[in-house]
């Protein structure tokens, strides 16, 4: 009997269908997610690469800023002249019709006594001058510029007063305004302002104080523009009664003397420099 039971148990265990092992559904979704993430990373890398290529292409095609034209000295000399061919203006003012190479011209000049000076860039015209003539031209140009500067419009000085200014301060400011106007070709703008936490004067009081200042300066100046009054601030415009003396240009003899003095000083300086180097 026991043998029969053992046989039946063994048969049942063999014939019974085995339970299938079911893997969790998350396994396939895991691989699917992994695949999707990998694709996203690859796509991101690809987009980055495309963007870098686009940036490089933009840099290549980006228009470069226009280069600034070279600025040359107005009247350079010798090797500083930026032209390969030049035309020479003779001592008589006649122009050499044939352009010549600058190098050959410089080779033909004794640089101890003469200098090649550019007169104009377009066309490139030059003069061959002695050092004295060259220095005289420089001094004459400098004197002309200085004289022209002195003949320009009037300079303006602003002097500020407060309404009801005290006597000492008032006298100081008026004295300063007189000094400016006495220089000639000057304009003084008197600016009236109110003190903090002080009542504004009436319109009549303002006019009275402005009249007082204009009268105090009447000997050296006169009003040249309509007075301005706005919100307690007023301006009186006064200009000199006299003009600055026109600066007289130096004569040719004076310029020549100045040029000789300048050249002598330069030669003495060069000699001292050579002697100091030779002592070493």
Automatic annotation (TrEMBL):
InterPro entries: T_IF-3_C_sf, Translation_initiation_fac_3. GO terms for molecular function: ribosome binding; translation initiation factor activity. It comes from Pholiota conissans. One of its GO terms (cellular component) is mitochondrion. Gene3D superfamilies: Translation initiation factor 3 (IF-3), C-terminal domain (3.30.110.10). Residues 47-77 are annotated as: Disordered. Belongs to the IF-3 family. This is Translation initiation factor 3 N-terminal domain-containing protein. It comes from the Eukaryota. Keywords: Initiation factor, Protein biosynthesis.
